[in-house]
Design brief:
Layout lengths: L50 H4 L13 H22 L8 H14 L3 E2 L12 E4 L2 E3 L13 E10 L2 E10 L5 H19 L8 H13 L3 E2 L5 E2 L10 E2 L16 E4 L2 E3 L5 E3 L6 E3 L5 E3 L2 E5 L4 E3 L7
Antiparallel strand pairs: 1-4, 2-4, 3-12, 4-5, 6-10, 7-8, 9-14, 10-13, 11-12, 14-15
Helix pairs in contact: 2-3, 4-5
The chain binds 2-amino-4-trifluoromethylsulfanyl-butyric acid (MF3) and cobalt (II) ion (CO) (2 copies).
One cobalt (II) ion binds next to loops.
Length: 312
């Protein structure tokens, strides 16, 4: 079932007075894979993570509690990621392609002396994830132009000073329908509730409980298949942050821990289907989803958002 799809001959929700099928209908057609442009390159002066050359990700033991000098670098990477997200997000408009958003992200990371972390991570072909409408996450930028009425998530990660900063947000394209507006608002609130649950001495499971309670009260679903994660010198560490109540997530939060919270919330069923590209995750029922993400530091008395949006 595709939630929130109006009748073809009913007046469009946008108030144009035209029939829906002559107005915003295009934004509700199922998304299809487009054409992906050749891989972009990074200038030799930019320090790249080890996987950049091979596409293979090696894991090593990395402390969950970061030393102060790593935290200092993560503050810088987090700030840069937030700046890039704000800059590229400002370019979202009907007519721009997700490949053009990828080019902007790529250049914005390099301009700050950083490497766009997604590029060749496990072979991911682009510098940012662009997830449109029913795409839950990990959408690959391509030649599809955004349509008035779409929603698009930009997931920006930068490798700067030897550490990663990871943040995302979902943007409306032109005028979006009321249910999509509610989806964006509730999903952002889910992230805020999750952040408010971050406190030393408390279990990780507090975060997912707060998120799930809020999403469920709004009648929305929580995606279980993708979780928040520890990060630092590595893009993803073994620490997992479920966005639903998971009683086994008993790890206790300690000052100095750094991880992401990044809830994916669906209007309809939260079950996942994968495209053949091996990356693009869509809802099985075609319903829209939204996501917001921050990189967080556990402090002595709560939390510091390392990817807080720049003051405008
Ligand atoms: N930024 C995503 C996250 O929040 C990960 C993207 S992995 C990629 O964890 F390879 F798709 F870039
Ligand atoms: Co991310
Ligand atoms: Co993340």
């Amino acid at each position: 079932m595709r939630a929130s799809l109006p009748q073809a001959n009913a007046p469009c929700w946008c108030g144009s007075g035209r029939k829906f099928k002559r107005c915003h209908k295009g934004a509700y057609e199922p998304l299809r894979p487009g054409t992906v442009s050749p891989q972009r390159t990074v200038p030799p002066g930019i320090r790249a993570p080890a996987y950049a050359a091979t596409g293979r990700v090696e894991r090593w033991d990395e402390p969950r509690v970061k030393p102060p000098e790593v935290i200092a670098r993560m503050r810088e990477a987090g700030r840069a990621a937030a700046e890039v997200l704000a800059e590229v997000g400002a370019a979202v408009a009907p007519g721009i392609t997700t490949d053009e958003l990828d080019a902007l992200t790529h250049e914005a990371c390099i301009a700050r002396g950083g490497y766009p972390s997604p590029l060749n991570y496990r072979g991911f072909p682009k510098s940012v994830c662009t997830s449109v409408n029913e795409v839950i996450c990990h959408g690959i930028p391509d030649d599809r132009a955004l349509l008035d009425g779409d929603i698009v998530n930009l997931d920006v990660t930068i490798f700067l000073g030897g550490v990663h900063g990871d943040t995302n947000a979902t943007f409306p394209v032109g005028v979006i329908d009321p249910e999509s507006r509610r989806l964006l608002r509730v999903t952002k609130e889910c992230l805020e509730r999750g952040i408010a649950a971050v406190r030393p001495g408390r279990p990780i499971s507090d975060i997912g409980r707060a998120i799930e309670d809020h999403a469920t009260a709004a009648g929305f679903g929580v995606v279980h298949d993708f979780v928040g994660h520890g990060l630092g010198e590595q893009f993803h560490t073994d620490l997992q942050i479920p966005h639903y109540f998971e009683p086994s997530a008993r790890t206790v939060m300690e000052p100095g821990m750094v991880f992401t919270v990044e809830p994916m919330i669906s209007v309809g069923d939260a079950r996942v289907r994968m495209w053949n590209d091996g990356w693009t995750a869509v809802t099985a029922d075609g319903s829209r989803t939204a996501q917001y993400e921050h990189t967080l530091l556990v402090t002595d008395d709560g939390v510091e958002v390392l990817t807080a949006p720049p003051a405008s």
